[in-house]
Amino acid sequence: MSGRAQLMWDEAVTGYDFGPDHPMDPVRLELTRKLVGAFGLDREVEVVAAKPAGESTLQLVHREDYIDAVKAASADPGSADGSYGLGTVDDPAFAGMHEVSALIAGQSVGAAEAVWRGDALHAVNFAGGLHHAMPGGASGFCIYNDASLAIARLLELGAERVAYVDVDVHHGDGVQAAFWEDPRVLTISLHEHPRTLFPQTGWPEETGAGAGEGAAVNVALPAGTGDAGWLRAFHAVVPELLAEFRPQVVVSQHGADTHFEDPLAHLAVSLDAQRAVQVACHELAHAYADGKWVALGGGGYAVVDVVPRSWTHLVGIAAGRQVAPETVIPEGWRQEVFARTRQLGPQRMTDGRWPVEYADWESGYDPADRLDQAVLATRRAAFPLRGLLP
Q: Active site includes 132?
């Protein structure tokens, strides 16, 4: 087993571009890659450009008719078929859409292959994490569901237990749907409550079906949840489930849109708490999956101040060279930010909240507290199905 991490990167992924007025600005990917380079983290990992996901790989999750519809819209955006979620406000069609979406998916599939085969212990694709795409349709800025495809490829290669941990502010609905009846995949999603945020799914009562009953776990967090509550909920649910499931690989999705500056959601999480959860996912992969960890990006629409810092921390953690929160950001990167966006970049790798403190669930809970009510709802709905006490 190589101890070295892989960073999946092809400059062409920045072509995933829905247009100048869309919140999914590909500059967030470009600035993240440059910040990784500014800290020299690209010398601590193997930078790999995987091939695009081919037709047979895409069909591990997506229907053939949907793939054909994406190809048609890619060749002629004006003919996009709205019945597949294409050509909508969320998912405008653009030339080359199929090719770049397949390229992003290919990076996540390549990451999964590298980790499973032992070419790398950890692999990161921060361009991935497009967790809303369904087997038969685009949704929520997502064309192909690279997270689901990475998991499906792991199963194809022989994995019997894969844990998926999603901490994006939005529910990981597409991944849950792909493995709703599959007991080999444990999907855990922590997200803002569906009453207040797209996609209006991810209720604690959604626990899977058939052979997969108990294999879907959802923590629906109240709007306004901050660092202490977010970390409390994560640690009250995820470690115990992974200890029971004993995954062979951990796939985690690290959407940065939980941040208090994000314009599309209503949580109040800091960069420092995001970093703490990244560290926790790394540690859990080592505790329960022999270190096999595939880490993906996701949402995040504060494209200058938040996303590049959050995902650079993720790369550093995977590389075994964590960036200390108080680290000053290189001036050259901040100049690049201003040149590209006319915005002033952040000065340090922290929001000033490190170390982030929270109360362990084991210390007791308050049944009148909205955050604790959310955790209790999840534990009561899902834990008994896995033989665990709520």
A: yes
